[in-house]
Every structure is written in structure tokens, then in C-alpha cells.
TrEMBL record:
Keyword Secreted attributed: yes
InterPro entries: Cystine-knot_cytokine, Noggin
Annotated PANTHER family: BONE MORPHOGENETIC PROTEIN INHIBITOR, NOGGIN, NOGGIN
Biased composition (Basic and acidic residues): 38-49
Species: Scophthalmus maximus (Turbot)
Subunit structure: Homodimer.
UniProt signal peptide: 1-20
Family per similarity comment: Belongs to the noggin family.
Name of the protein in its database record: Noggin
Keywords (A to Z) from UniProt: Chondrogenesis, Developmental protein, Differentiation, Disulfide bond, Secreted, Signal
GO BP annotations, alphabetical order: cartilage development; dorsal/ventral pattern formation; negative regulation of BMP signaling pathway; negative regulation of cell differentiation; osteoblast differentiation
Top-level taxon of the source organism: Eukaryota
The keyword Ion transport is assigned to this record: no
Amino acid sequence: MGLSQTLLVYALVCVHFGVSQHYLRLRPSPSDHLPVPDLKEDPDPEYDPREQDLAERTLRKKLGSNFDPNFMSISLPMLVNHSAPDNQVKLQGPMPNEIKKLDLSETPYGKRVKVGKKARRKFLQWLWTYTHCPVVYTWKDLGVRFWPRYIKEGNCFSERSCSFPEGMSCKPVKSINKIFLRLRRGVHGGVTNCTVSPGVSGSVWTARCSAPSQGF
């Protein structure tokens, strides 16, 4: 086995057993309460808003600055699914400092090895790609009682392990909340009308590689 192959094996093992604990101290902890559960509604169609209750100009005025076209849509978007195969997921933002600052020249036994700039750059890029936890988005239909009706929902891409050796997987870390309108018809004082109230929907925003939860 050549020096470059030996270094690669060493670095992979080092990252898993040594640096992974460093990641856990620096990064936010994953949450078992994400993604946010679906909203519960009475299925009785009597509570559904009528066509006259769905005037876009009126509802948009009520929602005001909370309307976010990046995460909301009044009609079904043309691109329904924003997910992509694993080999097509693009890295976003700068390389994490935890990876960028890895010292690949020092072994656990104090012996130092020489790593060329090109080899270091390629390995760090590979490591970033391998441990990256992308969030993929799909448009979710909330139903006729919500406006805007379509919300872009984020979920972790976790079809494969994100660690070496395998065992760790991508888990959600942070979510963002988006305010929309909830419309519900009912009888108030003998008069049937539509009540409009604010609602909140959560979507996964960031994810990271994490060990499986331990049950006790």
C-alpha cells in the first residue's frame, strides 16, 4: 500500500474516532422533535371555506409581510419535488472550519507525514461531500383550509450513512417557522361565516451527521 493510500485510510479512521467528538461539541445537537408533525384537522367538509372566502387580495393583505414566496405558493408549483439523487446534491456555503482545519500531517503516535496541497485539498473536499447532510425540499399540500395552500417542506437526506465506518446518519438540527392563514367555517351567533386565524408550519432548515439515539 502506497503512502497516499495509507494516509487516506488513516485520515478516515481518525476523522471518525477523533474528530467526530469534536463535531459534537461545536455543532448544534440534533432534535428528536423534528420534523414538525402534520397539522390535525376535522375531516368534516362542513368546516371547509367556500369560494368567496378565498379572495386572494383579502387573504394576502391579512397575511402581510409573512407571505414568503420562497416557501409558500397559492397554486401547485410546477417543480413539485426539489429532491435530488445523492450524487447530484450540491454543497452549499463555505467548507466547515472543523474540516478545513484538520491536521492530516500528524499521526496518533506523533510521527509526521508529508501531505501535498493538492492531495489535502482533494481529501478535504471528499470528506466534506461524504459527511454533508443536505436538506431536500418538497411542496406539501396543506389542504383547502390553509392559505397559502402549498408550503415547501424540508427533510433530511438520509438514504445512506454519513460517517466512516458506517453507523451515523443525517438528523435535523434546526427548523424555521412560517406563518400562514387557517380558514374554518362555523356558526357564530346563528350566522355561518369563515374565521381566519394565523397558523404556524415548521420546516427543517439544517441537518448534521449524528450517532443513533440511545434508548434506556
